[in-house]
Amino acid sequence: MTHTRTTRLERGRSALGPALELVHTGRAPTRAVLTSELGVTRATAGAVAAELEALGLIVVDSRPTSSAGSQGRPSHRLFLNENGPVVLAGQIHADGYRVALVGLGGRIVATVSGCGTIPADPAHVLAEAVAAGSGLLERAGRRCLGAALAIPSAVAEPDGEALNPLHLAWPSGAPVRRLFRRALAEAGIPGATAAVGFTGNDVNLAALAEHRHGAGRGARDLLCIASGHRGVGGALVLDGRLHSGSSGLALEVGHLTVNPEGAPCHCGSRGCLDVEADPLAFLGAAGRAPGPEGSLLRQATDLLREEHQDPSVRAAADLLIDRLGLGIAGLVNILNPDRIILGGLHRELLGADPERLRAVVAERSLWGRSGGVPILPCTLDHNSLVGAAELAWQPVLDDPLVVLEGEGREAGPG
């Protein structure tokens, strides 16, 4: 490294993390935009981009070209390194698990799933999922910088306990984060230490992924609601940050009552969104028994897509849309979001009859009547996995120089 570049980089070292995040989220496609967004000189932005490239995180276009009709000097384009390091992301759900290798930019490099009944001891499925992830890493031959896990439960902070895994047989308060870190250590996953091996609620992580890379990009106050394989979850991003409450337990929207005389809920109440607007509720309302194979979410979405013209299926869709709209309206009154995104079965319900859902929300909410809040489908495949990857990438986004330390890491039980 030349003395001039060293001097420039020393002035811009604090900009490495913000610069990487700008490229990671697609907000700095060129070095000119990076210079403007960081508020630094062109020389400093160039040194920062060169250092990120030297770390193997981005690629700087060596031969910039002007776009049609543009004036002035062409700017170097910035790309994420498609052959760069990855993180290991895992998701546990009621019907099995999925793991993936995820690069910067939320790009899934490789993924594999396992289906079946989740055992009561979380250590078993975590070990199986981590072993599957280890196989992906071995086959891909990519450097791993960390790992994270999404689970269908509120995750109590700071210890990472699964407080209410209602649709799993796990005991309340299961120490999932500690068990996940132990599984990573026993599998010898590179990049996993006592401090790396994050765990979060699946819908929270879906919202984080959609805010950075999908349908929620650019929203200030983003509300996300998703059905999951079982149950209903919600998440809120405020001013670009995930709102998880004082101890990680905020936005349990699945336990909003939308039908006081409805089905008993696992929480002890009745008629909650969790049991009135999830895939099992849809199958039941349509008069269809769940099949023995395949996830409930897949069964419900396939039924909605393939047989929506069937009167019983259409009536079930209308019923769930009305229940979902009632819940959303109450949240709009309380939270006043500037955008709502829907995932899982709810994304399919929105697609099946978008005007009905929006009309219910507008009719039932104070702020909906005054102009309405955009309600959009989630756009990312496996967004909870991508969100888990965001947790694992965050230390690198905070300080990209930790990449240099990765080769010497040894896994620990945590």
From TrEMBL:
<dbReference type="Pfam" id="PF00480">
    <property type="entry name" value="ROK"/>
</dbReference>
<dbReference type="InterPro" id="IPR036388">
    <property type="entry name" value="WH-like_DNA-bd_sf"/>
</dbReference>
<dbReference type="InterPro" id="IPR043129">
    <property type="entry name" value="ATPase_NBD"/>
</dbReference>
<comment type="similarity">
    <text>Belongs to the ROK (NagC/XylR) family.</text>
</comment>
<dbReference type="InterPro" id="IPR000600">
    <property type="entry name" value="ROK"/>
</dbReference>
<protein>
    <recommendedName>
        <fullName>ROK family protein</fullName>
    </recommendedName>
</protein>
